Amino acid sequence: MRKFLVITTLLLSCLAGTAQTGGRSVYNFLDFSYSPRVTALGGDLISVHDDDPTLLPVNPSYISLRHRNNLALNFTNYFGRTNYASVLYGFQIPKAGTFAAELRYVGYGNFRGADASGIETGTFSANDVALTLGWGRELSKHFSIGADLHLIFCGYEQYNSFGLAVDVAGSYFNDDKRLSMTLLAKNIGSELKPFIPGQYRHSPFDLQFALSQKLEHMPLRYHIVLHHLYRWNMNYYGPENPFLETDATTNTPVYPSKAKQFFDNMFRHVNFGLELEFKYFSLMAAYNHNMHQEMKVVARRSMAGFSYGFMLNIKGVRFGFARQQYAIGAAPNCISLAFNFEELAKNHKEKQARKLQRQE
User: Region 40-58: what's the mean pLDDT?
Assistant: First the structure.
């Protein structure tokens, strides 16, 4: 337990000078959910001590030998002409440890440019790219640590930016009790070459805690994620009236009670998810209250903030699919395909051995 407290202290020390308010950070594509399993479970940190390589980008503390020679391909059809994807590969360097290298790419499509007079100047594109190297190590039977280094490049027409960001994570896990907990400080960094000369902005820092446990007598795992732990107010109505709402029919301001304000803010920090786990198949669903409050239409009920998906895991091959509801009619599709080459090679050898036994 002492090691976990030390890790926690180190993570909290990373907070100095990094907290931001929404809309003032850069490289926000780092917060996109590239894994269907993560998307289906709310889009934030997931703490599960298993061999799923698609979880490694959000939780580097679980990078281990079980992820060696794993390849994961992820693709999300986002809004409009925007699509994003990632490719991840796990590998081991003797005496150095186990690593996961990932390339993230976001394409916003092509646009028609024009000058101040409205005369077209041709087409241009906008793209975000991040190259990530993650490292993890198990300190003991129940504790592990890990970190990610992000090299970031963004190019929007003639404007471009380069920056660095780091994630640091510490985890406690007890496989006998099917329990896992992680504390993560993510996106600690800023621009090195800013879009606007002299104006350096930070990456979208967050401090998150995740807990999951599989029930003893049911194939059910619950997930609880706490995000934005470094600040209380999650509303974006403004500093003067942070909880001001407007009645959709009368267009008059509505001031919620202090109790409603308190509980709304508290649950904005919480994602809750459930996962039904079978031998080769799993179903997932979650609710993100902060997303629901930000994306809901007051005059109409919607599924904003809800997400769901499934994953197949058969003999070293994983296929995942998920959807996350942002608003009415706005639910991006996320898919992934992952390969465990060591397990595939093992299955092939066993198949060949059985074939030889039948021939004899």
Answer: 93
Q: How confident is the model at residue 19 (pLDDT cuts 50, 70, 90)?
A: very low
Residue pair 283/221 in contact by the 8 Å Cβ criterion? no
Q: Is residue 81 part of a domain?
A: yes
CB 253 within 8 A of CB 244: yes
CATH number of the CATH domain containing 95: 2.40.160
Positions of E strands within 139-289: 143-156, 159-174, 179-193, 206-214, 220-226, 245-246, 253-254, 270-277, 281-288
Buried (b) or exposed (e) across 282-320, using 16+ Cβ within 10 A?
bbbbbbbbbbbbbbbeeeeebbbbbbbbbbebeebebeb
Token digits of residue 326: 């942002």
- What are the residue ranges of helices labelled H in 171-254? none
Strand 70-77 and strand 270-277: the pairing is unpaired
Which structural domain, as residue segments, surrounds residue 208?
2-234+269-359
Query: pLDDT tens across 200-239, in order?
Result: 999 999 999 999 999 998 999 999 999 999 988 887 655 4
14 CB contacts (<8 Å, ≥6 apart)?
Answer: 168, 185, 188
